[in-house]
Amino acid sequence: MFEAKFQSFADASSSHDSAARVAALRDALARQSLDGFLVPRADAHQNEYVPKNAERLAWLTGFTGSAGFAIVLTDEAAIFVDGRYVIQVRQEIDGTILKPVDISKTAPSAWLADHAREGARIGYDPWVHTSGQIERFAKAVAEKKIALVPLDANPIDALWPDRPPEPMGHVAIHPARYAGETAAAKIKKLREALKGADAALMSDPHAICWAFNIRGADVAHTPIALAFALLPKAGAPTLYIDDAKLDPRIRASLEKFLTLRAPSALIGDLETAGARGEAVTFDAATAPVKLVETLRAAGGKPRVIEDPAALPKAIKNKAELAGARAAHIRDGAALTRFLAWFSQAAPKGALTEISAAEALETFRRENGDLRDISFPTISAFGEHAAIPHYRVTDKSNLKIGKGVYLVDSGAQYLDGTTDVTRTVVVGRASRQLKDHFTRVLKGHIAIARAVFPKGVSGAQLDAFARRYLWEAGLDFDHGVGHGVGSYLSVHEGPQRISKLGATPLQPGMILSNEPGYYRAGEYGIRLENLIIVEKRAVAGAEREMYGFETITLAPFDLNCVEPKLMAPEEIAWLNAYHAYVRKTLSPLLDAKTRQWLRDATRAI
């Protein structure tokens, strides 16, 4: 039997309680003479996947998406989401209590400036906002003399009677054969980036786990340990982590090169550093404003900069790249077994979105080395496939019939992190579906085949994937690709292929290639592979040139492809990719699945 061990399909939305909860929050604010409160979906590290006790936005509003922001004022409230969640937010919140706002059109700071009264006092939790976020708010509301008030305690926590405890996942050493580089070598790199500062405060758990070659289990689907670290220009780094997460063997291993301290010691250590007048760097993307201002108030010199660990972490070494390739072969075999099974089971009419997701996870677990899924599987049929970040629940679960099924999924293995999306049709594909699918596929191929000079960023490649949709007056509202970690986050920066992707792409970076198209109320299409930036030899080139190696292995649904819309070089790429998939995966498959794969990857 199929089952899911790493994901739940329970409906986590609690919008039916939002009226009472927002009212209680307003009462709590009034007792502190506050006129409003800022509620991000964030923890003290700005993680994408936050621990359950930091899901304050979901508890208050009912919205369960991975990105959002609410502002609660005395007489009105708004919740801000991006294009991924414009449909979902309306389904989950109580629209009589909260007004949904498209964050791409109206920033929360601008909304606050327009809606809060002059001289209002707006509270915020300084542990869940960065300095940059608060500075943007302060600048936006300055003209109306609105005060932003840091609070000693988050008022939501006192209202949340069954708030989960702090996570205490056990820490593990990441094996050297997968890390490919010692912690000492990584620490040396980071020290070189201090550039005159006395120390660096590390607040991104992904960077900390990468730098010290550890992994954890504090949040869902991403093997990180929630912790802070202080890296001085000389001497041992200090890791601020709860002792309950460390067994004696792990503690002994870490104490060989760093000092272990309780998280409660961090504020005092920053005050001591400040009293000495030290300059300390803070990560602009993840450091809580609480820590920055603690150092400043004590007399120190905070320097808020880009995390010096972000780029070296993104550029994978040989061992990490080898691990990624190996993980994708095993993962591709599991996904192919699922697609073959689905092609037989779906037409019988007994499948649902949940049973399909359970089946895919089961096929992955049969690899024998699955540590977790890398995010909740997006198992979406029909109109649900038009919601880019749809999450199936017991309440929303659809029966799969004739039509479009989209599955976006990934896995965590010790040697690599995967993320792949395939869209298939149950029954016959309409002419319209083939047109849309093929345009998305052409965009995918354009990225896969791209050749570009050193220094080019993802923003310069984004339009490659949209061209064929644009020609038909179509588009999609998410980026073309995000960075991917090495047994870390499935969404990693600073590299990305999007209109906002300013970081130059470098060899060794792993990204996704996932253009899509979403027809609201009908169907959605997304085609995703992971790719590695690599050097590319180009005859007569006057500059160093790069391209992409595709490492995801799984067939695209040829039943949805219209070859007449494709150029010869696009057909050649698709046939070559399918031939490689067939050759690489066939030895890992049973005879029946091999036969299915031969047909699924036939040349067109």
From TrEMBL:
It comes from the Bacteria. Keywords: Aminopeptidase, Hydrolase, Metal-binding, Protease. One of its GO terms (molecular function) is metal ion binding. The keyword Hydrolase applies. One of its GO terms (cellular component) is cytoplasm. Residues 21-152 form the Creatinase N-terminal domain. This is Aminopeptidase P family protein. It comes from Methylocystis parvus.
